[in-house]
What does this fold into?
Amino acid sequence: MSEYVDDRVHLYQKDVIEALPQLQDDFFDVCIVDPPYGASTTNNWSYNENAKLKGFGGDWKLTNELWDLLSQNDSFQSTFAWLKELKRVIKSNGSIWIHSTYHNSGFVNVCCQLLDLEIINEVVWYKRNSFPNLSGRRLTASHETILWVHKGGAKHRDYVFNYEASKEYYSSSDLLKERGKQMRTVWDIPNNKSKDEMLFGSHPTQKPIKVAERILAICGVKDGRLLVPFVGSGTEMVAGLQYGMSVWGYELEEEYFNLAKKRIRTVLNNTQISLFA
Ligand SMILES: C[S@@+](CC[C@H](N)C(=O)[O-])C[C@H]1O[C@@H](n2cnc3c(N)ncnc32)[C@H](O)[C@@H]1O
It folds into this structure.
């Protein structure tokens, strides 16, 4: 097992399902979960999985990953297992955000309800430049769902909500959000990654950092603690560090652990440079 531990970073190459029970109760302010969606398949595609389409915000590679190959039963059971632990380790005023698509969103919603994790909002991340449907037999999937939940139940709704910051939030690429207006539940965030985000390579389901940045604008806690159970390329950990939080993360695959480590180290070096400049 490899690890990268620093003052504000706790990154482990480890199965998060084994790691979670070792974490303290009521410890984290925010948790951003981008789990396996169970969208991969053992079926052979009739098109080349390296197919690249130009003109949709860059090159696209189709995703079919072993770590994403979950049966429906596995998907439900593992969602329940990690959510139950996340409920234990998140503070009573903390927030958990969970990414999903139609493959796993039903499981996530049901598990939240079974565990009495109150759903605050269901956000639709609208991907204006989403990958076209190659088969021509379905609509083009152009959104993902993100649930914002807290553990206080209906009686203790003292979760952190940076209401004014969420109103002030502005991104020129979002055609729906106006500065000074309440944040809506539809976020228009093109699925583009900047050169900085891809500096050390890419992950097949890497999120644009703007999604995590927006989540933290809404409920981030300066000097607080962020947990990222499924690290991938480290996007959410990078956003957490840049927001001013300490970050904890777990990733099974060596390749992605190393990618995340490089991204995180760059942020830390830049932070140090700006501190001493
Ligand atoms: C959906 S991706 C996360 C992508 C990430 N949001 C990003 O922007 O790069 C999920 C990641 O979780 C990892 N993973 C899957 N099961 C895991 C487990 N049980 N413990 C730790 N990591 C796991 C996979 O290897 C994959 O890299």
